[in-house]
Design a protein that fits this description.
- By secondary structure, this protein is α+β, with helices and mostly antiparallel strands.
- It has helices at about 10-15, 35-50, 95-100, 160-170, 210-220, and strands at about 25-35, 50, 60-65, 70-75, 85-90, 105-115, 120-125, 130-135, 150-160, 175, 180-185, 185-195, 200-210, 225, 230-235, 240-245.
- An 8-stranded mixed β-sheet has the order 2-3-4-1-5-8-7-6, with helices on one face. An 8-stranded mixed β-sheet has the order 10-11-12-9-13-16-15-14, with helices on one face.
């Protein structure tokens, strides 16, 4: 199995600002299971500019920007509408999985090695929200550089207050009253409370250069908008995602991942554990993996 590797000239100081490095407790990777991979490849390459590697023997395809991994897709492994799977960085997948069960959650997929890339597990919260765990090996995660086409944010929809305690016990997360989730290393994402009749799930948001142009392009390629002028779209496969302007007006201070300070603007520039600011694309943060290679056994986790 081939595994990605950091550039040969990288150093510890380089990797400290590497957008593909993610703090423990933070979102570190996303992937999508779909009924027809080619439909998804055509759509996301057209909307977000992703380049897809050939599928491995399981159908899993890595997507990259400028030679850096951003996500992957593969054949859906469970019934129902497709959905984005969100992975959280854990130091020890076995310990986190055990803690999830002890806290009242359900272990869907036990910790499973994906070759040298890392170890994955899938859990459900008491309220039924899907959550995947990732213990990194050679694959540290998505290249969250803040550039168009990269991950901007993740919003967890829950249906019961029991999940507050669960997420704090298992991951150290706090679900703040203003809809922000924080963890041991600062900002994690956002959360919202949904009606019990609505399935708990994740909404992932991607940076785009221009929201209106990106939405029009997505619709032309078969996406369905959630209302006029909505930032939320459903792709041709049925998976829902959102888009955010790559450069947006600042309305005061914003959250620093390193300090955990909350300002008025909670939308992410990255989910990498490093606050890159609105000019990230011009700051030369080109860390991450070099040559894009498939890493075999990493699969779209069922939940």
């Amino acid at each position: 199995m081939k595994s990605p590797a950091p550039p040969a000239d990288s150093s510890p100081s380089d990797r400290s600002t590497d957008p593909a490095q993610h703090a423990v407790g933070n979102i570190c990777w996303i992937d999508l299971g779909v009924p027809d991979s080619q439909v998804a490849v055509d759509f996301y390459s057209g909307v977000l500019g992703w380049e897809f590697a050939p599928p491995d023997s399981t159908g899993y395809q890595l997507a990259s920007l400028a030679g850096h991994f951003v996500t992957a897709l593969g054949p859906a492994e469970d019934p129902g509408p497709p959905y984005w799977t969100v992975y959280v960085h854990t130091k020890d997948a076995a310990v986190s999985a055990s803690a999830a069960v002890q806290a009242g959650g359900t272990l869907i997929v036990p910790p499973t090695p994906a070759g040298e890339a890392g170890i994955a597990a899938v859990i459900r919260t008491p309220g039924g929200a899907r959550l995947s765990l990732w213990q990194p090996g050679t694959h540290t995660g998505t290249w969250a550089s803040g550039r168009p086409g990269t991950l901007a944010d993740g919003t967890l929809r829950i249906t019961t207050d029991d999940d507050h305690t669960f997420l704090h016990t298992v991951l150290g997360w706090r679900l703040e009253p203003d809809g922000v989730m924080t963890g041991p290393n600062g900002y994690v994402g956002r959360w919202t409370k949904a009606e019990a009749t609505i399935a708990p799930d994740w909404l992932v948001t991607f940076h785009v250069e221009d929201k209106q142009a990106a939405a029009q392009r997505a619709i032309a390629l078969g996406a369905r908008p959630h209302g006029t002028g909505s930032d939320i779209l459903t792709d041709p496969s049925g998976a829902t995602f959102a888009i955010a302007d790559h450069r947006h007006p600042r309305s005061g201070s914003h959250r620093s991942y390193e300090t955990g300070v909350v300002g008025e603007d909670h939308r992410l520039d990255a989910v990498s554990g490093v606050d890159l600011g609105e000019d990230a694309a011009d700051m030369g943060f080109d860390g991450g993996f070099g040559e894009v290679e498939a890493f075999g056994d990493l699969r779209v986790g069922p939940a």
